[in-house]
Amino acid sequence: MGVAVIKLKNPPVNSLSLEVLTEFVISLEKLENDKTFRGVIVTSDCPGIFSAGLDLTEMCGKSQAHYAEYWRAVQELWLRLYLSNLVLIAAINGVSPAGGCLMSLTCDYRVLADNPKYNMGLNETLLGIVAPSWFKDTLVNTVGHRTAERALQLGLLFPPAEALRVGMVDQVVPEDQVHSTALSVMAQWLAVPDHARQLTKNLMRKPTADRLVKQRDADIQYFLRFISRDSIQKSLRVYLDKLRQKKG
Ligand SMILES: CC/C=C\C/C=C\CCC/C=C/CC(=O)SCCNC(=O)CCNC(=O)[C@H](O)C(C)(C)COP(=O)(O)OP(=O)(O)OC[C@H]1O[C@@H](n2cnc3c(N)ncnc32)[C@H](O)[C@@H]1OP(=O)(O)O
Q1: Residue 105: which of 163, 59, 190 has the closest Cα?
Q2: pTM above 0.90, yes or no
Q3: DSSP string covering 138-149, please?
Q4: For residue 167, how far is its CA from the centre of ligand 1 (angstroms)?
Q5: What's the total number of domains in the chain?
Q6: 51 ligand 1 Cβ < 6 A
Q7: Which CATH number goes with the domain that contains 116?
Q8: What is the DSSP string of 189-239?
Q9: By the 8 A CB rule, do 8 and 51 touch?
Q10: What are phi and psi of 107, to 5 degrees?
Q11: Is 11 helix (H, G, I), strand (E, B) or coil?
Q12: CA of 231 to the centre of ligand 1 (A)
């Protein structure tokens, strides 16, 4: 039925490095241009981890030019996913904080494996950073304003039952059924004529995407100013050190 699977593979935690973001955009573009494909299942090849989100090492101790290139790549992937003409289904087979969660929120439907360790949410505030307005918009469009307001301020990571309750995911299923469920949901979405579904998706999503498109450069400048602050760099270093020391 013309369904591709994109399996994220950047061990150990599928962090969204510049290289991963760039390759993801290229793969998506190829699938968009190949009319034999109508749908994509986005999943992970790293056991227990869907994606650890943006690669913190790309945002820490690097040059301004690097930050700008990285942020443009983050914007690009979000825009491509959010406005994709393909049916996108996230088969979430692991934990998905921050950018990992955001990636799944750009999909049309989310199936999450029922494992209490597989938390998801936009936890940026817990790192001492702030989810940009388009991250916030994506969450609001999924779970509504009040739930998003509380989740964003507290940096909440929801376990599966809670994620389902607030509407962050559409289905929670046993871990060994995530892929098969994604496939049967895909069949249902592909039963709708493409042109009607695509125009409707665009109607729903374009106003949100346009807000970023209209101010992409300003958003990059804002990111540069924010991420270059000493206090933010310090927060990120402390957070990364904590992650590294967990093992020791
Ligand atoms: C209005 C404001 C406007 C603009 C503001 C601008 C910008 C700010 C917004 C930027 C947005 C950021 C969104 C993000 O996505 S930030 C990333 C958030 N991610 C996390 O908090 C997840 C962190 N990771 C974890 O919690 C765990 O690693 C995880 C549960 C995923 C897996 O745990 P596990 O025990 O299996 O592995 P670890 O031992 O913890 O990790 C293994 C190694 O991987 C490194 N690691 C983990 N996560 C990341 C990451 N996100 N980036 C880079 N590296 C990561 C970890 O340090 C370990 O490294 P080593 O010790 O092996 O060197």
Answers
A1: 163
A2: yes
A3: HHHHHH-HHHHH
A4: 24
A5: 1
A6: no
A7: 3.90.226.10
A8: HHTS-HHHHHHHHHHHHHHHHHHHHTTHHHHHHHHHHHHHSHHHHHHHHHH
A9: yes
A10: -75, 165
A11: coil
A12: 18
Residue 215 has a CB neighbour count (10 Å cut-off) of 14
Pocket test for ligand 1, best of 13, 60, 130 (most atoms within 8 A of CB): 13
Of 54, 31, 34, nearest to 42 by C-alpha is: 31
Q: Ligand 1: which residue has its CA nearest to atom 29?
A: 52
Tens of pLDDT along the chain (248 residues)? Answer: 799 999 999 999 999 999 999 999 999 999 999 999 999 999 999 999 999 999 999 999 999 999 999 999 999 999 999 999 999 999 999 999 999 999 999 999 999 999 999 999 999 999 999 999 999 999 999 999 999 999 999 999 999 999 999 999 999 999 999 999 999 999 999 999 999 999 999 999 999 999 999 999 999 999 999 999 999 999 999 999 999 997 66
Domain range for 98 is 2-191
In a domain, 77, yes or no: yes
**Catalytic residue list:** 54, 99, 123-124
The verdict on residue 248 lying in a domain is no
Helices marked H in 83-159: 99-105, 133-143, 145-154
- For residue 120, what are its two tokens? 């998801």
Residue 151 lies in a domain: yes
Q: Which of 29, 6, 41 is nearest to 190 (CA)?
A: 41
Whether 125 is covered by a domain: the verdict is yes
